[in-house]
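Supplementary Note 2. Why include the ligand at all?

Several targets in our set were suspected to adopt different conformations when bound, so apo predictions alone were not considered sufficient. For every target with a known small-molecule partner we therefore ran a joint prediction. The input for UD2 is given below.
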Amino acid sequence: MNNYLITGGAGFIGSTLANHLSNENSVIVIDDLSMGKEENLFKCSNLKFIKGSVTDEKLMEDILSNNKFDYIFHLAAIASVADSVERPVETHQINFESVLMLLELIRKYQKDLKRLVFSSSAAVYGDEPALPKKEESVIRPLTPYAVDKFAAEQYVLDYNHLYGVKTSAVRFFNVYGPNQNPESPYSGVISILVARYKKMQNGEEAQFTLFGDGSQSRDFVFVEDVIQALLLVATKEEALGRQFNVGTGNALTLNDLISVIDEALGINLRVKYEAERDGDIKDSVADISRLMSLGYKPNFSVQDGMKKYLVSEKLI
Ligand code: UD2
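The joint prediction is reproduced in token form.
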């Protein structure tokens, strides 16, 4: 039985991790419910939910000074690149300043912490065309989101080198699966697609707006594989002070993704094509050899992951 703190733990990835861990561990979740939902979390005595923001210094100090954690996963963030372009100052507070504050609180109060895992992003690679992305590939953060993620990631790893705080970081590629919130226009494309298919299955009018011609490609990774990666990165000695790509190593175009779902559901999605989004990256795929060296093996192809997701949404 270990003690875990998961920031952003009512969100998509955080709640999947919290529910998984709460079987055999004690878990505290802090989340401001800006995108997360309390209903995402299992109701069980091992899992304590605190509604609040990671930018609230007093609250964070209370949590960190009154508990002894074995592991901390910092997943709280504004995950929207576009939002960071609209509101660079506000998103900086959450995506960067909260991390530095957390690092200081850990240095002060959590001397026995076994690992802090920070969630960085494939956004740090920017539009540099060489593929697949290796952790040591050229970094070209192009948006406030990407700059903050990269800076925070470097601070997190530096706290290991400078102060001996046990830290690691992960660079998520395109994560999908149950509990991803489709409500924002900048939600993950798969969650938006699933919401449209659901409407069509219910006999309602629905169409999906595709930004670009659909030839852009992404490394879509199922959330259960992401949990596998997070647990390996948190527990392996070799992961200390390092960052890891989290993906599958395979890319799929949006057009092919839609064909996969069309086929699984026997529906032809209505697609409206619009101009591509500003700052959209054309192709993205992870080199996952560093993560595989920790023992990671993705278990879900997009076909398998989508089936499991569609079943959980009662679409099949
Ligand atoms: C993902 C992450 C982001 C950042 C980035 C790093 C998500 C939700 N976002 O952004 O946080 O880490 O990777 O590169 O995982 N699209 C449509 N129609 C829609 C929505 C999206 O055509 O209604 C397109 C979009 O223009 C893009 C693709 O689908 O070409 C994927 O979009 P996304 O928002 O799921 O993810 P991405 O890769 O922009």
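The chain has two domains: 3-174+222-246, 177-219+249-284+299-312. The radius of gyration is 19 Å. Comparable summaries for the other entries are listed in the accompanying table.
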